[in-house]
């Protein structure tokens, strides 16, 4: 927690609220070029103690009515709903969430309590987009507050739009962005909505885009942003499958699966000039501290080590052929985050060692390798000579690795009930710890180019 947050809570007499912890997951938002341009933050609100939660149900006394005010009276603790709102805001300003955003803006669903509390001003206006739910109670006080926040350069998104209604009409003038739920909007209405809203100058986000056909439809209608996992499906990656460098990477992975000599590895790497360039960068990074500048490929191999080369090569399989920055590449980010999450999680389980951690990382990396190569996932896994437990986890979600894979998939969707149910099989890990590891994994994937332990930035 920041010192500012501590002081604010102390002034309200609610220092115990520092123990209220929200959990967060992220969901990618892509631009028209298929590159990352933001993340929606999926929030699991903290549970209040039973006594505090019950207090929120009694609004019959003057004191309860005073507590229900958006701005708590001096010296009094905020009402329970406001305390939850502050816990969410407090979590959003923590370094873990910021790190997982990897420099991209956050789309955050905001409650009435969050909007009306000055605590929300601690969120940087240039890094957040406030999503307005259709379930919000819209009155003069809320509109006045939105106008006030807009004056402070905060931006608003109309969320979960499927059918225009009274709430939509009231909030539309104050929204810069409109997010349309493609799964619930009739196709005829979708085209009309897109046309009218684009003419009004609104930026359009299509949510629920999990198949290529929906992406193509909304792209043709002029949508600006796309939220969903269509990019991780084989049909969205036809251009990737024919990429010669990826087959060269696959050959290198097959070689690394054995016990290659330095001479064999050197010969294979020389067929991949881009790999050589990044390997030289990695070998000369300060983290390796070999004591001298590495100038030859052989020295780079010796300095880096085959394990690190293998991990790096596995993730480069997903790199976009347009040579975009690592943190903007959605498929590589998803693969790296899954792999790192599974590695972090299994290390916290009883009797897990280095071999189990390596298997978990591989399971995450190759859980959607068919998005790169197409064809049968099973046949691709066989070519990679992955162990039976890894294949069973990827193909049938079996074993501990399968449970971890299902858990990270639930985190990606922000399905907290599913995360909690799977967490029962991952004890002693809690939902909060699993969410925290998800953020850590996202941050590792996005900025690992700064560390010799991770990836190199793909820019050249």
Distance between the amino and carboxyl termini: 38 Å
What radius of gyration results from the CA coordinates? Answer: 24 Å
- CATH level-3 fold name of the largest domain: TIM Barrel
When the domains are counted, the total is: 2
Secondary-structure arrangement, i.e. CATH architecture of the largest domain: Alpha-Beta Barrel
Main beta sheet strand tally, sense and closure: 8 strands, mixed, barrel
Structural shape: globular
Q: What is the structural class?
A: alpha/beta
Strand segment count: 8
Indicate the proportion of strand residues. 5-15%
Strand order of the largest sheet: 1-2-3-4-5-6-7-8
Query: What would the average pLDDT be, to the nearest integer?
Result: 82
- Detail the poorly predicted runs: 1-15, 57-75, 236-244, 286-290, 449-460
Name the CATH superfamily assignment of the largest domain: EAL domain
What does this 3D model show about the protein?
Keywords: Hydrolase. Residues 242-432 form the HDOD domain. Its EC number is 3.1.4.52. One of its GO terms (molecular function) is cyclic-guanylate-specific phosphodiesterase activity. The protein folds into 2 domains: 3-231, EAL domain (TIM Barrel), CATH 3.20.20; 232-460, Hypothetical protein af1432, CATH 1.10.3210. An 8-stranded mixed beta barrel has the order 1-2-3-4-5-6-7-8, surrounded by 6 helices. It is 50% helix and 10% strand. Strand 7, helix 10 (212-220) and strand 8 (225-227) form a beta-alpha-beta unit. Helix 12 runs antiparallel to helix 16 (306-316) and helix 17 (330-347) crosses helix 24. The protein is of the alpha/beta class. Residues 1-15, 57-75, 236-244, 286-290 and 449-460 have low confidence and may be disordered. The chain has helices spanning 3-12, 50-55, 62-67, 80-92, 95-101, 112-116, 140-151, 166-171, 187-199, 212-220, 238-241, 244-256, 262-269, 273-283, 297-304, 306-316, 330-347, 354-365, 370-373, 377-383, 388-396, 399-413, 416-423, 431-447; strands at residues 23-31, 36-44, 106-110, 128-132, 155-161, 177-181, 203-207, 225-227.
